[in-house]
Amino acid sequence: MYQFSGKLKIFAIALIILGALGTAISFMSAPKTVDEAKEIIAQHDAHNGEHTAAATEGHGEKVAHEENEGTAHYEHILHQMQNRPWSAFYVALIFSLGISLLMLAFYAAQRVAQAGWSVVLFRVMEAITANLVPASIIMIVILICSYMHINHLFPWMAEGTVDPTSDKFDPIIYGKKWWLNTPGWLIRGFVYLAGWNFYRYFIRKNSIKQDNGDLKLHKKNYNASVIFLVFFMLSESMASWDWIMGLDPHWFSTLFGWYVLASLLVSALTVTALVTIYLRNKGALPFVNNSHIHDLAKFMFGFSIFWTYLWFAQFLLIWYANMPEETTYFAMRFNEYKLPFLGMVVANFVFPVLLLMNSDFKSVPWFVTLAGLVILAGHYTDLFVMIMPATVGAHWSFGIPEISALLFFIGIFIYATFSAFARVNPIAKGNPYIRESEEFHYNNVEDRGQENNHH
Fold this sequence. Notes:
By secondary structure, the chain is mainly alpha-helical. It has helices spanning about 5-30, 35-50, 70-115, 120-130, 130-145, 170-175, 180-210, 215-245, 255-280, 290-320, 325-335, 340-355, 365-390, 400-420, 435-440; strands spanning about 55, 60-65. Helix 3 runs parallel beside helix 14 (about 400-420).
């Protein structure tokens, strides 16, 4: 049995505390009034020697900071500045929640496919999904805060946007009010989270019970996984529309759900590889060999290519059609977020190709770890570029709010994952495919000095 060491536990708690303190400081440092926002803009302009363009409500239109501009514009700028700590926290939350959710979906797919190679990794996958519980609780808090207008992340929630008599009336949002309405949005969010967590609880409970070798439980887990995957494919796409694409309510993409899925699935597989390598080095996974690492790296490589295909397909069609209501999405990101926008393409495509195309490299743990860290940084940046332009416009940077939020959720992930792994047998010994998984080995994959842990 693996022991969740005191040092790792203290490290996780320290990350949570540091992240919470940094996030609190970020909220306290945000401007509270329009005058404070004007002062920050003036200081920034004086520092740069020129006025800085700011994006309007997530569409990328640039509005010069003229002295005679109305109060409404500066209120919008104030909201963008106040959004930054919310947005930094939200990016890290979606990343953490998405990794756990996509790991749950991949785990369910392994059960439905009745795959043999991955059974020795089931306890690792189940442990990673434990993070879904705290992430979902925090997500519920964010949903309620948005519903109550405590933050300004979702512009379609602003008062008057669907009121034809209001000065803030937005005909585009009005046409989407059958979907973009706060009661429906909040209820759907609760349904997504409840469904995901119910399956996670059910499959984890039955997986542990199955250690007694009961094949009826195996069949029950198979059926539950089939149902979950159907629910997941619908709910993941709708959650992507509600929680990410809804930040840019004038823009839409018909493959956005797939795009988000690909980004988070690569991240989930990468985290699985990193956790597996760590636990194997601690002697907690005696039957995991370099062939298992090789297969995880193959998935990392393959879905990196899939992500690139979806990114390019979405970008190319919008660029080629050149329709203003679509191109503003990429224009804003290319003009105001050029470094992260182009950098994440390099990290998410170029590096995985260079590092993982060679079959030999996929079975080298330290090399997979290096590639994995680059991939995780790239896909965090991908989410950053999806969310930040719509919520903070040009008023972005990477500093205390973003680092603090990452530390907070990394700490929660470490604590939830390793405490869950330590509570049960590290091998799903009741699974009928466990022997196949234990003996899984590619003839062309060398263990390169790996100790023989088969007892």
